[in-house]
Amino acid sequence: MDSFNGAQIRRKSVLGIGNALIDVLITITDDSVLQKFGLPKGSMTLVDAILSAEIKKETKNSARNIQTGGSAANTIHGIAKLGGQCGYIGKISDDEFGNFYLEDFKKNQINTHFYFSETGTGHATGLISPDSERTFGTYLGAAMELTAEEMSHEIFQNYGILHIEGYLVQNHALIETAMRIAKENGLLVSIDMASFNIVAANLDFLHDMIRKYVDIVFANEDEAQALTGKTPEEALTEIAGMCKIAVVKLGANGSLIQSGERVIRIDAISAKSIDTTGAGDIYASGFLYALSENLDLEVAGKIGSLLAGNVVEVVGAKIPEETWKRLYPVIENLKK
């Protein structure tokens, strides 16, 4: 077993912080709407309320569904489904979307550390292309008003891991304050790079934060390339030199994990992909849950891969209840 596992995790609970958003997931018949609104395919682009409304109007005849979202929130939701202890920090509004968000987290027994704003609850319009790739136009709303000043030591004290989404990078002070307080309270810090265009636009800041505070980095191929300028294998090694655990996700080709000199290749499970929304988020759920349970890194990768392979077979970032029931015994077997 890797010497890193468990040795530094003082408490099992995982605390997430991110943009608390409602996902409005829309299946599009072609990519013309992406070109029309200048949305790079596979990326997350911030939009204002007006453009968000225009995108929804343009796609009003397309199939859609609504669920709680936000990258870190999706990860925490998955940890809760695995039976893990977890909590979440975010900012919402006392409106229809905000109430929907709050009720979903309560229902799943997630400790909530919500702040409230007069600004409407944020929402991410996810456009799902025929090849299953998803592109987000995100109106942050209340989410972007979460501040560094609202971070308190009391929130962090009962947790063992802090998981941050890279999408929060629009607020450098918030990210650095949350990471600093987490480290002062003995937590490990995990970050998901979130989107290649965000990494490219905040490269120096992210390098600095990873070296100063971060223990675990999750990145897909594009994000790893944006962070290092290198191929996945080379990027893995470079990132592992900056933190304790590096994870590079390769989609259908599985994932790579490195801690110190140890390198692990995890195979993807066979899946019929219809929507990649949340695949990276739910991979992190399985991985962080396993770490919090002091399981080996290879087991962590296998649980993450199992969950990711199941979420891509449905629209949205949530695995259906009937699928969870089928997965639980498989996960228990992996833990042995």
How would you describe this protein?
- With 336 residues, the protein is α/β, with parallel strands linked by helices.
- The chain has one domain (14-21, 69-121, 141-335): UDP-N-acetylmuramoyl-L-alanine:D-glutamate ligase (3-Layer(aba) Sandwich).
- The chain is built from 13 helices and 14 strands.
- The protein has helices at residues 32-36, 49-58, 71-81, 96-107, 153-156, 172-184, 196-201, 203-213, 221-228, 232-240, 279-292, 297-311, 321-335; strands spanning 14-17, 21-27, 44-46, 64-69, 86-93, 111-117, 121-128, 134-141, 161-165, 188-192, 216-220, 245-249, 255-259, 262-266.
- The strands form 2 sheets. It has a 9-stranded mixed β-sheet with strand order 6-5-1-9-10-11-12-13-14, sandwiched between helices.
Please render the helix and strand layout as text.
Layout (H helix, E strand, L loop, with lengths): L13 E4 L3 E7 L4 H5 L7 E3 L2 H10 L5 E6 L1 H11 L4 E8 L2 H12 L3 E7 L3 E8 L5 E8 L11 H4 L4 E5 L6 H13 L3 E5 L3 H6 L1 H11 L2 E5 H8 L3 H9 L4 E5 L5 E5 L2 E5 L12 H14 L4 H15 L9 H15 L1
Parallel strand pairs: 1-5, 1-9, 2-7, 3-8, 5-6, 9-10, 10-11, 11-12
Antiparallel strand pairs: 2-4, 7-8, 12-13, 13-14
